[in-house]
Amino acid sequence: MQARSPTYDRILEAASAHFAERGYDGSSLTHIASAVGIRKPSLYAHFANKNALYMEVFKQALQQECAMVARCFDEEGGVATPGAGYADSLIARHASNEPLHFLLRTSYTPPAELRVAIDEGHERYLDLLHDTFCAKLRACVQAANLDDAAISQYGQAYVGIIDSLQVKLVYTDREQAAARWAVMQRLLADALEHATSKE
């Protein structure tokens, strides 16, 4: 990979927007180069081909989203439903955040030739969600009577909720995702309250 430069960063920014809007098959390196203000051969000085550019955009978007997971959970404090801040953020950011829009579109409809690498990256993100949720739940005083297996089960439930919200964002709209989250958040909160109140 080439060292980062202003042109390199502009290519990634233009490619992220272009791929998010048109997907892999509908995208054109010529169009991306034009959006950056360079010729297509100059783009090849930074990226070997379309696949290399696409994967670099994916890796950058994935890195940004993983950082957002950490930030949202860190800022939550002692809330009744761990992970609520991240779910709210996901819904709020999707329409206006091109890297997130690209990441979700790519994760759920990856190009066939890049599917394995993209699936691996998406699974790492889901594992991070699970582990971060579990750590937050484990730190709650109310969860002291939950064993590791129960905490992991709640972590899997949380990942399933986030996955469901992302599908709604990709295939429907923010309003439907928000409505689904309102119901699922209530169910998760009730389940956690019931489990942690047992003597």
TrEMBL record:
Pfam family, one: TetR_N
Coiled coil: none
InterPro entries for this protein: Homeodomain-like_sf, HTH-type_TetR-like_transc_reg, HTH_TetR
Record's keyword annotation contains Transmembrane helix: no
Keywords: DNA-binding, Transcription, Transcription regulation
Positions of the HTH tetR-type domain: 5-65
DNA-binding region: 28-47
Gene3D superfamilies given in the database record: Homeodomain-like, Tetracycline Repressor, domain 2
The name this protein goes by in its record: TetR/AcrR family transcriptional regulator
